[in-house]
Structures are given as structure tokens and as C-alpha cells.
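Renewal narrative, Specific Aim 1. Our central claim is that a sequence can be written position by position from structural information alone. The example that follows is taken directly from our test logs and has not been curated for this report. It begins with the C-alpha cells describing the chain, in the order in which they were read.
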């Protein structure tokens, strides 16, 4: 583009940035994407175990966390999951549904990235990688973006730099710095969709159980998810843990129901009546992994480990049942941004138009994707927010 002047400059070549880029390009605008990494879409490639959980069949505002729970509705309605699925099918990408309406590529996340970059190429979007931003200067009619590769000018500037999660993928806090430069409020960031860690004796228990997955119902602060829990060398992970982590705050206790389909009190009393000579651990091993039962035994009924059911008082069985259906654990923390799938909070949506993603006080400045205070549940929701917010901004830049 002559003299490095464009209609739109987008900072960040991730899901939201690329989607915004070709959406704007389809309107005949000249678009430049600047990305500091050596290639665009790195988080897309690693998502979903390399298969990219690109959306969900059931997208609702209730699947998103934000200080303003209504903010996401306009964009999600403006570009929905069915529209993205239609584009996936037009590009002949094979996909499949997993539980909870999650959609994944049959082949590879590379298919989704290629679709996005192909659409950018078709719309004549210019993509410049390995481009470090030095400064952004607002002008009377647009923005100057000063980089190590030279200076660029545009009428509209889109911040699609993502959050702080997974710094090895190139994540930085640059988008937040831009927001602060223009006087926007930032809500306190935290790692979301992230494993828990423990520092007490539970850490050793988790180490011994590492690799074991258990179907549980996990709860905190009135939110509950029924999914697998996975024990790790550092603590616990798995879908249930990741979902709950977005609602957990430091110092809170989480509750785990290890037998969510069973009335555990009634089960243990039935064991006592029908299997009076059996050991509790042997009976519970019909429901749970033997290794987990042994760890629970050491914690909660060691004194009765070798006593038959008939000799265990009902009060003790009631206590054990409570531990099994409401196992209360206090994480010491999370694994942090190193492994977090998303960054919670970010740019306060009160500063942004829910229809266009444009800053209310700074004309021509837009924010899309993870950088703002909209965070989805695990299961394709964050990608759908990237597509939807990118599309919304791409219609108005």
C-alpha cells in the first residue's frame, strides 16, 4: 500500500484478528495485520489437542463471564455458530461433534487456520509477521503505528492482541497497555481455564494418582460442572477443573462430588446391610478406582480400614459419605498463565460499543477477542467470541 497507508490496521494475527481482517477486506477496505510472532494463528494450531474446538452447537450468553453479562449478546447474535459452521463446510473441512455440542476438525487445526488465511488472501489482506510495535500515536484522522519495520498509518486501528495466557505462544500484555494509553479501565486479569495446584499433603496424593481421570461434579461459588477431573503431578486438571477455575478465587474451597449419580449415604448403608463381612475399600472399588479409594481410606477411615462393614458405626459411614459426595479441597493456586487457555477480565466493556467493538471515547479504535472482559467456558465458546467480535468490528472499521 502506498506510503504504508491503510484503511485498517489490526494488531494481532490470532483468531479474532484474522477474522476481523478478511471481514473488513470483503468490504473493499485495505487491511494490514501486524503480528510480533514468526507466524499467525499459533494458539489456533495448538487448540483442542491440535484439532481446534472451533465452536459449539449451543452458544448462549450464559456461557460467558463478564462484568457486563449482556455485552456479548449483540455480537453473538450478529455472527452465530451456524454461520461459522457454514463457512467451515464451504471450505470442505471435515469435522465432528463431541460431547456438549463441541465441534472439532477431523484432521487438524491447520485446516481452520488455512481457511482464515485463505479468506484474508482472497480479500487482499496484507499480513506482516515478526513485527514489533514501538508506539501508537493518535492523529486527527487515524493512527500512526510505529514499528521496527517502519511506520504505518490507518484510519481505524483494531487491537486483537489476546491476553496473557501461554506466553510461549507469544502472549503479552500489549493490548492492555494500549487500552491504558487511551484511558480505558482495565479489570484485574487472572488465569482462566487453568489447572489447580496444591502445596499440602494433597500434592503428594495427586502425584501418586497422576494420570487418573474421574467423572465428577465440581462446584465453587454456586457454579457447578459435570466433567472429568484429571489428577496431575502438580494437582488437578481435566475439563471440570478448567471450567471451575474461571470462577475460583484465591483462598476459596472447591467441592467435588466423586459419585454424582449416586446417593452415597444410602449406598454405604446398603453395603453394611448386604455385605456385612466385606471391607469398605473393596466395595467402593466397584465405583471408583482402587488407587483413589486407598488414598481416600488413608484420609478418612484409616481406623476402620481392616474392619468389616458390620463393625463400622453408621456415624462414620455418614462422615465418609459426606467426604465422597462433598470432597472439599483448597487449592494453593493455579498453574497460571503458563498453561491457562484464557485470560479472565481485561478491557472494561463499558468503554466499548457492544454492536461495533469501537471505543466510545476514542473514534476508530476497536478491541476484539480475548483482550476485553469477555471469557467463554471451555468447549469452543472462546473461538466463537473471537469470530463474532471480529466480525462485528470488521463490519464497522
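The sequence written for that structure reads:
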Amino acid at each position: 500500500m502506498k506510503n504504508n497507508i491503510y484503511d485498517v490496521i489490526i494488531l494481532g494475527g490470532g483468531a479474532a484478528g484474522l477474522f476481523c481482517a478478511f471481514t473488513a477486506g470483503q468490504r473493499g477496505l485495505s487491511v494490514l495485520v501486524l503480528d510480533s510472532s514468526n507466524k499467525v494463528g499459533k494458539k489456533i494450531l495448538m487448540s483442542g489437542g491440535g484439532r481446534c474446538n472451533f465452536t459449539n452447537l449451543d452458544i448462549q450468553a450464559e456461557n460467558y463471564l463478564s462484568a457486563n453479562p449482556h455485552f456479548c449478546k449483540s455480537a453473538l447474535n450478529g455472527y452465530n455458530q451456524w454461520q461459522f459452521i457454514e463457512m467451515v463446510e464451504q471450505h470442505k473441512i471435515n469435522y465432528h461433534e463431541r460431547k456438549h455440542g463441541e465441534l472439532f476438525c477431523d484432521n487438524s487445526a491447520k485446516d481452520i487456520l488455512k481457511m482464515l488465511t485463505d479468506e484474508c488472501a482472497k480479500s487482499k489482506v496484507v499480513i506482516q509477521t515478526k513485527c514489533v510495535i514501538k508506539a501508537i500515536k493518535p492523529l486527527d484522522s487515524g493512527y500512526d503505528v510505529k514499528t521496527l519495520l517502519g511506520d504505518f498509518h490507518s484510519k481505524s486501528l483494531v487491537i486483537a492482541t489476546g491476553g496473557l495466557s501461554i506466553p510461549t505462544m507469544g502472549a503479552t500484555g500489549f493490548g492492555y497497555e494500549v487500552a491504558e494509553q487511551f484511558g480505558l479501565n482495565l479489570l484485574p486479569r487472572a488465569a482462566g481455564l487453568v489447572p489447580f495446584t496444591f502445596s499440602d499433603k494433597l500434592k503428594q496424593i495427586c502425584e501418586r494418582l497422576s494420570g487418573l481421570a474421574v467423572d465428577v461434579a465440581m462446584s465453587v461459588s454456586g457454579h457447578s460442572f459435570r466433567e472429568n477431573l484429571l489428577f496431575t503431578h502438580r494437582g488437578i486438571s481435566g475439563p471440570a477443573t478448567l471450567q471451575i477455575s474461571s470462577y475460583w478465587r484465591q483462598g476459596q474451597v472447591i467441592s467435588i462430588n466423586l459419585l454424582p449419580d449416586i446417593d452415597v449415604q444410602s449406598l454405604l448403608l446398603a453395603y453394611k446391610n448386604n455385605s456385612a463381612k466385606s471391607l469398605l475399600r473393596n466395595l467402593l472399588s466397584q465405583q471408583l478406582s482402587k488407587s483413589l479409594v486407598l488414598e481416600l481410606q488413608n484420609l478418612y477411615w484409616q481406623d476402620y480400614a481392616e474392619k468389616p462393614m458390620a463393625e463400622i458405626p453408621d456415624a462414620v459411614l455418614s462422615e465418609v459419605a459426606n467426604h465422597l459426595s462433598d470432597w472439599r479441597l483448597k487449592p494453593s493456586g493455579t498453574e497460571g498463565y503458563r498453561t491457562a487457555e484464557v485470560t479472565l477480565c481485561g478491557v472494561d466493556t463499558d468503554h466499548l460499543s457492544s454492536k461495533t467493538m469501537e471505543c466510545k471515547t476514542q473514534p476508530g479504535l476497536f478491541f476484539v477477542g480475548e483482550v476485553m472482559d469477555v471469557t467463554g467456558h471451555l468447549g469452543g465458546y472462546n473461538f466463537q467470541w473471537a469470530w463474532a467480535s471480529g466480525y462485528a468490528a470488521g463490519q464497522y472499521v
